[in-house]
Each structure stands twice: as structure tokens, then as C-alpha cells.
Amino acid sequence: MNTDLFIRGATNIGIAAYCIIFSVAMFKGRIKYPWGIPKASVSEDNWMAINRYGAKAHIMWSLPILIIGTATLVAAFIVPPTQSIDIAWKMPISLSALLLLGAMVQTRLWSRHLPDRAIQN
User: What does the domain layout of the chain look like in residue ranges?
Assistant: First the structure.
């Protein structure tokens, strides 16, 4: 077993699992979307809409991390421990957590269409 690949794969699977669990709680409204979006503080409706959209975006962006982690974990048992790992494996595996930035940017851009003021009844 190649321990370098095993650690990278397990880490990516852990990051993806944490993000998915966190997103489910966020979708249910138990956690506020943690990355300051000004329109979230305008109204309860905005806050809930951003939470739900952000949760969905984080789950979707976590799936590639989960796939990369699983592929890396499988490769850990195929690649001999004495064989050095090519940079082509290390770069995507190491940078996969940066995919979560995509979810943050996507949610922030989406929130632009929300109203700037609370709607009065």
C-alpha cells in the first residue's frame, strides 16, 4: 500500500464528507451560511434562500472531491509503496479542496438577485 496516496485519498474523502454533513445542516436551517454575504442579513427569507442555495452548491462541489478521494484511495492499494508518485497525481489531489471555493463564489454571485430590503407586508 502506498501511504502517500492513502493519506491524500482519506483526507479528500474526509473533507468531502464533512462538507456534505455541514451542508445538510445548513440546508435545514440549523447553521447560518458562514461566509459573509451582506444580503443574508437583510431578511429571514434572504437568509434561508442563501442557506439552501449554498448548501446545494457545497454538496455539488464536494462530489468531485469525493470522487478524487475515492480514486486516490483505490490507487493507494494498486501503486507499490516503493514507486514514486508522479506530479500529475499530486497536483489534482492536493488542490481538490480548492474546489470548495467554487461553491462560495457561486453562492455569492447567485445572491445578487435577492432583494436589498426586507419586503413589507
Answer: 3-113
